[in-house]
Write a structure and sequence with these properties.
By secondary structure, the protein is an alpha/beta fold. The chain has 15 helices and 25 strands. It folds into two domains: 279 residues, 3-Layer(bba) Sandwich (FAD/NAD(P)-binding domain), CATH 3.50.50; 199 residues, 3-Layer(bba) Sandwich (FAD/NAD(P)-binding domain), CATH 3.50.50.60. The structure holds flavin-adenine dinucleotide and 2-acetamido-2-deoxy-beta-D-glucopyranose (4 copies).
Amino acid sequence: MNGHANGNTESRIDVAIIGAGLSGVNAAYRLQESCPEYSYTLFEARDDVGGTWDFFKYPGLRSDSDLFTFGFQFNPWPHDNPIAEGHLIKSYIRDTAEKFGIDKNIRFGHRLTSADWSSAENTWTLNIEHNGHSKTITARFILFGSGYYNYNEPLEAKIPGLENFQGKVVHPQFWPEDLDYKDKKVVIIGSGATAITLLPNLAKTAERVTMLQRSPSYILPLPNNSNGLLLWWLVPLSWFLSKATIARIQRMAWILIARYFFLLCHKFPKISGWILRWRSSFYLPKHIPLDPHFKPRYNPWEQRLCVSPDGDFYRCLRQGKADIRTDTIKTVTKKGININSGETLDADIIVTATGLKLLIAGGAVLRVDGKEIEIGKKYLWNGVMLEDLPNASFIIGYTNASWTLGSDATAQFVCRLLKSLESRKLIAATPRMKPELAKQIKNLPLLNLNSTYVTTAESAIPMAADRGPWQPRDHYLKDIKFATKGNLDDGMEYVQGPNLHLRPKIA
Ligand SMILES: Cc1cc2nc3c(=O)[nH]c(=O)nc-3n(C[C@H](O)[C@H](O)[C@H](O)COP(=O)(O)OP(=O)(O)OC[C@H]3O[C@@H](n4cnc5c(N)ncnc54)[C@H](O)[C@@H]3O)c2cc1C
Ligand SMILES: *[C@@H]1O[C@H](CO)[C@@H](O)[C@H](O)[C@H]1NC(C)=O
Ligand SMILES: *[C@@H]1O[C@H](CO)[C@@H](O)[C@H](O)[C@H]1NC(C)=O
Ligand SMILES: *[C@@H]1O[C@H](CO)[C@@H](O)[C@H](O)[C@H]1NC(C)=O
Ligand SMILES: *[C@@H]1O[C@H](CO)[C@@H](O)[C@H](O)[C@H]1NC(C)=O
């Protein structure tokens, strides 16, 4: 195990960060840079850093955001390609944790099972499970970098007759690394980013891969080289500007391009939908018609847009090793799938790429003075803290831009909150909904996406409203401004008290 702090010195910490994925590592860096007088420890249930990028193992696993914005601002992505494979992202997270000494503060194999806030003592008591034992740790602030989905259970999809199937059924969330799909017939059920990644990668060695989708997604082919066509002007700049400056410009350019593309899609849904479909038709082989296979029922960016680096998805369809069906399942049989058109798809392996089950706070039970807080029944304050939950913050990134951008805005907000309250001698901060406001508000979705995995998860994620500090976050440039300058008092209740002695940071 890393680190040198023994159990005793660790039983009281200032900030407990839950999770050592992108969000946890980013938050740790922000804390040690701007609040060095606060000690922090990251508790990670797994045995390694990386979160999502350590957990998922399916062939071809990759980002669909560009790494210039998906990567850390303080340690820019070191490679040229904007879309990266999972193992590269994981090494990048690990290297970053090592480079900045964050790894020393990670406790692996430590799962938070519950957290109790005591108003009498103004502290959190964390119950942490480690090697089958449970230990308690007190903390002054909790920062949840625990991601947004359940690692143990995928989204249930009812597939009629699946129990009859005599081949192998695989869920991408639990991909067996020794799965042999060479010369096998594979059917992928689903049409999200995972299915679109899997198809070309499985088709490299499988006999045949068929993607069976209920409804299509937009799939945007994107050049997989340094900056594509849009950022050619960075090349002459790189002759006389430093690497760090170029990295900053590159990151900002990608933030703006993605933002304007997103806005364009929302403002002109008809035209942008048409352009995206026209791009698809350009790449498709003759035997696969645009309609119905590439004609989504929704407008661009109502659900997450899928990308295909260098059009690998389309290339694989053109090469004839893969196929696509837009239909529903009648029943799964011993040897394949009967679809409602009457056709039977033979299969040796069925991959159920049916999505993630959303989960906030990594399944930990949260209590205030012994009373359990139901996350799905509370509003999120400015996208960062939960109504009625003192001294805790949730890192929930964006769904319509790189997650990390939102995650960094939250981390920077928490640093400012800690410093500001320290200087005002306030010891607890709790978002509260004013009763008169509660009567006026209308609910809004927190995550602005219509995907099934978001719409079926309403009870698992916090709520958002149409006014006051309870509105969902909007975009990075606005949220960073809020993090560094926004109003900390609107809808927040404070407890004044003796300034708690801060423990010196673990060296
Ligand atoms: C296949 C896939 C591809 C994706 N691609 C993109 C993309 O291209 N762009 C994008 O913006 N987003 C993408 N996402 C979303 C992605 O998960 C996030 O962007 C990002 O990786 C989240 O980082 P995180 O640190 O917030 O959470 P995670 O990566 O989920 O890490 C959370 C960590 O917290 C730990 N943890 C959870 N609960 C507890 C607990 N109770 N106690 C202790 N530890 C706990 C977990 O073990 C994990 O290590 C993708 C998601 C998936 C599944
Ligand atoms: C509670 O959190 C605030 C920041 O939100 C921090 O300044 C304060 O010290 C914390 N309280 C205690 C008791 O540590
Ligand atoms: C993208 O480019 C990188 C670097 O050249 C390469 O390693 C990777 O395999 C490419 N990815 C795809 C999906 O083509
Ligand atoms: C989701 O769908 C509903 C109804 O189909 C629509 O009114 C709403 O605007 C959509 N939301 C988003 C974010 O696209
Ligand atoms: C982007 O998503 C956020 C929620 O994650 C939402 O509040 C925001 O309105 C979206 N942006 C636009 C322009 O729709």
